[in-house]
């Protein structure tokens, strides 16, 4: 693996708050008229009126409200490393 893999990790972990904010997950709640609001509505409807704890919507909101846990950083860093290595590898002959 080359140095590209390190940058992939940094980019993956560093952009998560920006990406979550762009779709409507904010530190104070779900922003109206964003994808996050539609996801919340769909999840609540499917669950009989409330968003289930541990669901994707609940997890994304928690990440944006509290920041990334060490486990999340490790997972995202690993994914970024794999992506960076793949992007930095030469094309097949």
UniProtKB/TrEMBL annotation:
GO cellular component labels: mitochondrial membrane
UniProt GO BP: intrinsic apoptotic signaling pathway; release of cytochrome c from mitochondria
KW Transmembrane helix (keyword) present: yes
Keyword Hydrolase: no
Topological relation to the membrane, as annotated: Multi-pass membrane protein
Keywords, in A-Z order: Membrane, Transmembrane, Transmembrane helix
Subcellular location: Membrane
Taxonomy, superkingdom: Eukaryota
InterPro entries (UniProt xref): IFI6/IFI27-like (IPR009311), IFI6/IFI27-like_sf (IPR038213)
Gene3D superfamilies in alphabetical order: 6.10.110.10
UniProt record similarity statement: Belongs to the IFI6/IFI27 family.
Protein name: Interferon alpha inducible protein 27 like 1
Gene assigned in the entry: IFI27L1
